[in-house]
Amino acid sequence: MKYRLEDSTSPDFFEGSYLLGIVSTLKNYLFCWHIQHHLNIYFGTSEDMQINLVKNQRIYSFTVYEYRDLVSMDHYQLFTNKNDGEFLLPELQHLDYIWLFKGVDGNIHNYKKIQSLLKSIPGVQMVVDIDQSRIKSKNNLQR
Hints:
single chain; alpha+beta; seven-stranded mixed sheet; 2 helices; 35% strand
């Protein structure tokens, strides 16, 4: 099943979650390799894990990577924000990636640790917290 913007999840999709914005010169596959190497997080994706956005009679696909930590029960999703001049979150056009953290009981310790470690990856230029209340198109992240 392809992810489509028309699909929606439960209203509490973002409850207890955090968002990070990442600016990087790295291609998707290389960025994920660095995350695996530096943070020991093994993101996976498949063709079914694409978010398709239709604009001007054209389909733009945004890759979604996913990882579930079986020890901490944290769930991470990494979204590409750019595709051929279109953006998954148009109000955050300066960001290349959006990282969604969903943890058990809002575990902020892992979030802060990952945020810090991301800054040490070569090719990562900026890592910022994203205030979810200011994002008008955050429903684009839902499947």
